[in-house]
TrEMBL record:
Its cofactor is [4Fe-4S] cluster. GO terms for molecular function: 4 iron, 4 sulfur cluster binding; 8-oxo-7,8-dihydroguanine DNA N-glycosylase activity; adenine/guanine mispair binding; metal ion binding; oxidized purine DNA binding; purine-specific mismatch base pair DNA N-glycosylase activity. This is Adenine DNA glycosylase. Signal peptide: none annotated. PANTHER family: ADENINE DNA GLYCOSYLASE (PTHR42944:SF1). It comes from the Bacteria. Keywords: DNA damage, DNA repair, Glycosidase, Hydrolase, Iron, Iron-sulfur, Metal-binding. Belongs to the Nth/MutY family. The keyword Iron-sulfur applies.
Length: 291
């Protein structure tokens, strides 16, 4: 479907009345605050992110403040947000930035440790007001339904950035970008979209096609793309990290062995934490967070 079929102004108007009061959207939030929020929000619900983000901003309001923290302090403060390597990437960013300002261009932002295309675009757009496409899972889903008539978005493709750029209005582009993202998060949701609340209801290609169900092979492929958690090495890694975060001194292997019954999986998870720099082993064969 022609990209002009989407009414960007309707989405912006909807957003003005429906937007969530997320702490990093409030006036006065720095570029560092936006960067931290974007890294924390990757694959993590914003309801879990918000209180942790506020604690971080009070404790480490600037990259220079954050750079003085130890890795152990950072990992303890990260808590159970998941994917703790993100916390270390932020720490590495702070080491590189020191007292320098957060870059404003996508290219400069992507040069920072662990900052990918999406995060760089989000900071450039949402803080610096650059009219650049910001495409996350929510945006991809809105466009798949409203423009293509597909209930499920396909795997990420380079073409999506091109289309998102074509859709950006000349006026209020950054506002539109956050609005369409919010639409996907609150209304055009993955499992149970609330179509009657959608500002695009009358023009949505999926609605006009009669809301067709995805084919069985598409559903199967989508399920494969969704990462399960229960019983995975990621869950075991999290349980081991809980032990290390709670301990004030290095812990013995026996303290780790009690968290999971499968010895082989437990050893594999512990080895991966050591390899990722999220845990360390001392001369007495005890384990602790990075010094």
């Amino acid at each position: 479907m022609d990209t002009q079929a989407i009414d960007t102004q309707k989405i912006v108007e909807w957003f003005r009345g429906a937007r969530r009061d997320l702490p990093w959207r409030r006036p006065g939030t720095t570029a560092w605050g936006v960067l931290v929020s974007e890294v924390m929000s990757q694959q993590t619900p914003v309801a879990r992110v918000a209180p942790v983000w506020e604690e971080w901003m009070q404790r480490w309001p600037t990259p220079a403040d954050f750079a003085t923290a130890s890795k152990a302090e950072v990992l303890r403060a990260w808590g159970k947000l998941g994917y703790p390597r993100r916390a270390l990437r932020l720490w590495e960013c702070a080491q590189q930035l020191a007292d320098a300002p957060i870059p404003s261009t996508i290219e400069e932002l992507q040069a920072l440790p662990g900052i990918g295309q999406y995060t760089a675009a989000a900071v450039a757009c949402f803080h610096y007001g650059r009219n650049v496409p910001v495409v996350d899972t929510n945006v991809r889903r809105v466009y798949a339904r409203a423009l293509d008539g597909d209930f499920l978005a396909p795997p990420p493709r380079a073409r999506e950035l091109v289309r998102a750029a074509e859709l950006l209005p000349a006026k209020d582009g950054p506002l539109y970008s956050v609005a369409v993202m919010e639409l996907g998060a609150l209304v055009c949701t993955a499992r149970s979209p609330q179509c009657q609340r959608c500002p695009l209801l009358d023009t949505c290609a999926w609605q006009l096609a009669g809301c067709p169900e995805p084919a069985s092979h598409e559903l199967a492929a989508a399920k494969m793309r969704v990462q399960k958690f229960t019983g995975t090495d990621r869950q075991v890694r999290g349980l081991i990290m809980d032990v290390l975060r709670r301990a004030d001194t290095p812990v013995s292997r026996s303290a780790i062995d009690v968290v999971w019954p499968d010895a082989a999986q437990r050893s594999r998870a512990l080895a991966s934490l050591l390899a990722d720099g999220l845990a360390e082993q001392d001369a007495q064969q005890r384990f602790h967070l990075p010094a």
